[in-house]
C-alpha cells in the first residue's frame, strides 16, 4: 500500500532487479534490471508465461526466462501503484491507481473500467487479493479522519462492482489482504495484539471477518503474507524490529512458513516497499518472484 502520491523513483546509484527464486533449491536468478526505472511488485500470469510489474505509474510484462520489460496498455486508468493482481483466468488485471480507486483492465484490449465506489477524497482503495472464483476483490480501505489520523481496514467488493463489505473495524493498522487458494480465508498483516507501534504480524480470518487467527509472533515486523498455490506454505517479507510501516530501502528478509508451521529464512536483500507487495508465487508453487533495490557504493 502506498498513500496517494506519484510513482517512486530510484536514488542515485540504485537499481531495480527482478529475481526468480527457487524456494527449495535456493537458486536465485535475476531476470530483469534497470538503473532508470523503479519497478515493483511482481505478479505471475496464471499460465506462468509472464511476470507483471509496475513502474513509473505504468504496468510492464517480462518473460520469467528474462528479457526486456514490455509496456502493458492500461486504457484510461490513471497512474497505478504497486497494488495489482491478475484475475484467476488471466484475462484481466485489477489495479490500484493514484486517484485512490480500483480498476479492471482487459489485457487483450486495454479496455478499462472503474470497480470501486466513490467514498470521498478522505478514502482510498488499495487492492491486494482476488477470490479464487474471480468474483470478489479484497482491498485495504484507507480513511483519513478529521483529526488527520489514518485508519486502515480490510474490505471486499464484487469484482464486477457493487456494495463494499467492511471486514475489520478497529484502529489497528491492517494491510496485505489476500485470499487463500480455497477461498475460505483472507490473510493479512496487522498490528493488533501488540502494544509496540509498527509491530505488524501475520493473521488470517474467515471471509466474513470472523475467526481471526495469528500466524506469527516474533520480534520482527512481518508484512504481506502470500499463501502458495496449494495453500501449504506462506511467503512474506520481514522487516527489522522497530520498523514503522513498510518502508523502502532497508535490509529485509524473505521468509517462509512451512506446512508444519516452522518459519525459515529464504533470502536477505535490500528492499522492502515494492519487493513482494502482492501475490508473487509462480503457478507451480516452487518459485517466488521478488524485487530488490541495491545501491552501488
UniProtKB/TrEMBL annotation:
Gene3D superfamilies: TolB, C-terminal domain
Domain of life: Bacteria
Short name of one Pfam family: PD40
Family: Belongs to the TolB family.
Protein name per the record: Periplasmic component of the Tol biopolymer transport system
Species of the source: Micropruina glycogenica
